[in-house]
Specification:
Helices cover about 0% and strands about 55% of the residues. The two termini are about 15 Å apart.
Length: about 110
């Protein structure tokens, strides 16, 4: 599975995410990512995931999914720079606009 990774620093903590769209590109969501400690990508990039699994975490009044990536290969790096400080207004921006096409899941990506 290929993913575009967005790296942000928020409250002195590095966070990774990716955007997922349906096949009609009408609905999308942002998925939090976690990497094996010491194996994090240095910058925003596209990766080929070799080994991963889904987990979840409690966020306020809900439970959110996250993809934990164990092993990956960097395919290409992005042409924009990392944001050092993220403000609430930054969440209104489409941080993936410079990525071009995002990941689109179809039935061939599913194991069942």
């Amino acid at each position: 599975m290929k993913l575009w990774i967005k790296k942000n620093t928020f409250n002195d903590r590095v966070q990774y995410s990716t955007r997922i769209q349906d096949k009609d590109k009408v609905n999308d969501m942002y998925l939090d990512l976690q990497f094996k400690q010491g194996n994090e990508p240095a910058e925003n990039c596209q990766i080929q995931v070799k080994d991963s699994f889904f987990s979840c975490y409690k966020a306020k009044d809900s439970v959110k999914p996250k993809l934990i990536i164990i092993d990956y290969e960097v395919l290409q790096t992005s042409n924009f720079t990392e944001q050092k400080d993220v403000s609430p207004k930054d969440f209104e921006k489409d941080v993936y606009a410079d990525f071009g096409s995002s990941i689109v899941l179809d039935s061939s990506d599913l194991p069942f």
